[in-house]
């Protein structure tokens, strides 16, 4: 026959186990889903993910590791509902492995499935750039070139206008002086001509 005290102790242990199990069930998180690497550049990338609806997520933790290298980078953010994170200071032409975990008040979820990606080389990125793709820096340089060209054109036009105005002024001065020159020429020619005799003909000498 079981003692009453031992039965009470077993009952308390059973209730404690059930309460702990219920707490663990409430705080257990699912691993993030659909982890994707986007906007891969030579030295940066963006990782995005999704979570199950209803999970009490308050943040995330990301583990970033170079392939075949043990050194890790750990990124953790809490009190946020974002579902993306920028990875920075990456090496070009390097493979990386990324895991994502959800964080709740009770702890962290299991890590997501590993995602492998590779950063491109600088030369490959430049070669793959579309001829029609224009960056903000190139737009600024083009605007500066256009402004310089406009300044040069304006200066040249002003110089040409000055040359034309000077030519017109000199032409007007020359034109105004032409009647005076004609009068002087006519006067000089009349003074140098043979004087006319009132009676006409040649004078005859008396023999």
Architecture blueprint of SSEs:
Blueprint: H1 4-27, E1 33-38, E2 45-50, E3 59-66, E4 72-78, E5 84-87, E6 95-104, E7 107-108, E8 115-118, H2 122-128, H3 136-191
Antiparallel strand pairs: 1-2, 2-5, 3-4, 3-6, 6-7, 6-8
Structure commentary:
- By secondary structure, the chain is an alpha+beta fold.
- Helix content is 42%, strand content 23%.
- It contains three helices and eight strands; from the N terminus they run H-E-E-E-E-E-E-E-E-H-H.
- The protein has helices at 4-27, 122-128, 136-191; strands spanning 33-38, 45-50, 59-66, 72-78, 84-87, 95-104, 107-108, 115-118.
- The strands form two sheets. Strands 3, 4, 6, 7 and 8 form a five-stranded antiparallel β-sheet that branches.
- A hairpin with a 2-residue loop joins strand 6 and strand 7.
- It starts with a helix and ends in a 16-residue tail after the last helix.
- 9% of the residues are buried.
The Rg value, from CA coordinates, equals: 50 Å
| Helix content, binned percent | 40-55%
| Contiguous helical run count | 3
* Structural class by SSE content: alpha+beta
Please summarize the sheet with the most strands.
5 strands, antiparallel
Strand tally is 8
Q: Between the first and last Cα atoms, what is the distance in angstroms?
A: 202 Å
Identify low-pLDDT runs.
17-26
Mean pLDDT: 78
Tell me the strand percentage band: 15-25%
Q: Assign an overall shape.
A: rod-shaped
Listing every helix as H and every strand as E from the N terminus to the C terminus, the arrangement reads: HEEEEEEEEHH
